[in-house]
Amino acid sequence: MISLSYQFSKEKGKRRSQMRKYTRKLMAAAMCAAMTASMIPASTWAGENTDEMSVIRVMGINNTVTTVNGGTVSLKDWIESGNSQLYNTFTEELAKRNIKLEFNLIEADQYTTVCQTTVASGNLGCDIMYIEPLDDKTKQRLIDRGIFVPINEIWDQSEEGTAKEFFTEGDGKFVSERLSMEDGNVYWLADIQTSNYKGEVTTGAALAFNIRKDWLDACDLETPTTLDEFTSALKTFQDKDCNGNGVVDEVITMKIAGFGTDIAQWFGLGPEMVFIDPKTDTLTSPWYQDHIKDYISYMNSLYEAGLMVDITNQTNTRRATNQMSGEANWVAQTWAEPTIQVQEGAQPPYLEPIVIKATDDTEPLVRLQSGENLMSRIYAVTNECEDTAAVARLLDYMCSPEYVELTEHGVEGVNFTRTEDGDYQQLSGDDIDNSIMSLMVGALWNSEVLPRMDLNKDMSTELVAGIQLGKDAGIPEGYQAKADFADWVFTQNMENTVNYSPLTMLAVANQEETKRTSEILTDLDTYSQELLTKLILGQKSLDDWDSYMDDLKRLGLDELIEIYQGRYDRTKR
């Protein structure tokens, strides 16, 4: 039996019968700008006629990572050393397509300034540009002036058609759906991530409230399945001085100013001030949901009993000091436990994800990352690009399975081998390639220079690795409870999940929407956070509820929902 917080539904959620194998990689991006960076040409090889090569100028960040042996390696190091078989393979593949890249690489701490200054000067000096540092108004102005060109018109001109198929019919269709402007054009691309569970369910990682299983075991308690059992367990942790310091300080740590606490989801509430209701597929607010008052009252009871502390806008120091009895976190996480310092001889710390049915008439929700994610790092093609056909060829290559394999795993036999099941097994080593690829960060040009395409990641492999990490930490069964919970979510409870970051599911805002949203959120966001905090802490009374709702409406909550709904509707055109 899976030990969860209420009786699981036996009915399995919808599964996709087959995970599409059409894994491709996205567009190119990198950026121009002068200042402190120098242009670095891609390597060429004997027999190549560089006069016939199409040069694409890209500007981005000189990505640098710390390797497993404590050293640092940057993208410039990779390029200039000539010792990276991974980078050499990349440039060889580009040469086959008559493409040569020239990188203008800026140090990370300088990039925002360089990017903004370059745009202000009007002399971009690049064909593809990493544009995350630009605000929405600036990006819209550059579109209106024709500085950023429609990327969909570039992939349309490709004879090969790989990128066009990927973005209009394949696994990247969601990219063009969410990044299309009102005129139907896509003016920038983003890092993307797609993931699944055992190749059957398109999903990202799940989140849940994580309780101290090691303390439950020490107190001979079962996993809580009701609110009363949960409250009682928290009180028992204090009564039995589970951290052994002689102080009544075992508490759950929560950021109560927002709705993404996972306890809020036990009451069926959405995770953000405005969210996509999974039951109606429309935008609404937790402030308008049935059990919002019940949630506030329960959280207030935990606070008044000394069982919960608010850490909004604070670092969670109570985890390291072994005062934390539970928190909202990723289900599959394995990085929190090692930061908890327990007394000598105590059981190894172990955080178990749970969900509780808090009301009789509403199923609890589980926060879930989408299986089709757009990251915040974005890239545009500029009007200074004279050879858009070359960019189209670059896009075709980046949307191919070969490119995805190269940038995410490296060169077979050098950076990885395959298991009997066909899975990737990264090779370790001190050479310049393996010292980076073994960290699973991808190739150094893969994000903030060119878009990262982390495609078709199987969440089950992460869970299997997590079980072993638990065993290594001294837990006989490993972190099995995490894997069991995730398996239940992905195979039996998908109908009761809610997107944890709903704004990533909306189409790009137009100029008017950007302006009005900014005006509304200036006061509304602050009011919502302060109101929720004061209600939970007992500093405001639920008796004045109608007045609070009037304030939220006056500050523009309904208008904000309407704006977001319009953007969501555009993704379905």
Envelope shape: globular
Sheet with the most strands, sense and barrel status: 8 strands, mixed
- Highest-level CATH class of the largest domain: Alpha Beta
How would you state the average pLDDT, rounded? 87
Short description:
By secondary structure, the chain is an alpha/beta fold. It is built from 20 helices and 21 strands.
Describe the structure.
The chain has 573 residues and is α/β, with parallel strands linked by helices. It has two domains: 39-200 and 373-457, Periplasmic binding protein-like II (D-Maltodextrin-Binding Protein, domain 2, 3-Layer(aba) Sandwich); 207-369 and 465-570, Periplasmic binding protein-like II (D-Maltodextrin-Binding Protein, domain 2, 3-Layer(aba) Sandwich), CATH 3.40.190.10. It is built from 20 helices and 21 strands. Helix 16 (459-472) runs antiparallel to helix 17 (480-492) and helix 18 (511-536) crosses helix 20. It is globular. 45% of the residues are buried. Residues 1-38 and 42-50 have low confidence and may be disordered.
